[in-house]
Design brief:
Shape: flat
Keywords: Membrane, Transmembrane, Transmembrane helix
Low-confidence stretches: none
Helix content: over 70%
Distance between the termini: 48 Å
Radius of gyration: 19 Å
C-alpha cells in the first residue's frame, strides 16, 4: 500500500507542479478576478456601495501585503494570502446568501443548521469552490518595498477614513 502512495506521489506531484507553473499567472489573476466578482455579487444583496469600496480596499491591501511578505518568505506570503482571501470570499459568500456578514452569534445558533438543510448541498459546493480559489498560487512582483509600503499605508488610511465617514458599516476584517 505504501508503495502505491509513493508511486502516485512521485508521478502526480511533479505533473501538478508543472501545470501550476505553466499557468501560474493565469491562476493568480483568476484568484483576484473571482474575489473581486464575489464583492460585486455581494453588492447585489447589500445594495451598499460602501461595502464594495471597503472590500476592494481590503483586497488591494492583501495583494500588497502578500507581495511585501513574499519578498522575504514566499511560503508565509502564500499562507497569509490564502487565509485572508479565504476570509474575504467566505464573508462575501455569507453576505450574498445571508444578507449579512457571519457573526459568532450565527455560528453559535444550532437551530440555524436545521434551517440550512434544504440548501446545504449548495453551500457545501460553494465552500469547496471558495477554499479551492483561495489556495490558488500567488506571484511576488519585483516592486520597491518603500513603494509598496506607501501604497499599503495610503490604502489603510483611506479605509480608516472611509469607515469614520460611514459609521454604520461593517467589514470582514473589523
Amino acid at each position: 500500500m505504501y508503495e502505491k502512495i509513493k508511486l502516485v506521489r512521485s508521478e502526480i506531484v511533479p505533473k501538478v507542479k508543472r501545470i501550476i507553473g505553466n499557468y501560474e499567472k493565469q491562476l493568480f489573476l483568476f484568484k483576484y478576478v473571482v474575489t473581486f466578482i464575489s464583492i460585486g455579487i455581494a453588492f447585489i444583496t447589500s445594495k451598499s456601495i460602501e461595502q464594495v469600496v471597503v472590500s476592494t480596499i481590503e483586497l488591494l491591501s492583501i495583494i500588497i501585503l502578500s507581495n511585501i511578505i513574499g519578498k522575504r518568505n514566499r511560503l508565509y506570503a502564500y499562507i497569509f494570502n490564502s487565509v485572508t482571501v479565504l476570509i474575504i470570499l467566505l464573508e462575501q459568500f455569507f453576505m450574498y446568501f445571508g444578507g449579512t456578514y457571519l457573526s459568532m452569534i450565527m455560528l453559535s445558533n444550532v437551530g440555524s443548521l436545521q434551517a440550512l438543510s434544504n440548501k446545504l448541498p449548495l453551500y457545501i459546493i460553494c465552500i469547496i469552490i471558495v477554499i479551492s480559489i483561495s489556495l490558488l498560487p500567488i506571484i511576488v512582483y519585483d516592486v520597491e518595498r518603500d513603494t509598496q509600503l506607501l501604497m499599503f499605508l495610503l490604502l489603510f488610511v483611506g479605509e480608516i477614513t472611509y469607515f469614520n465617514l460611514h459609521k454604520d458599516m461593517t467589514s470582514p476584517f473589523y
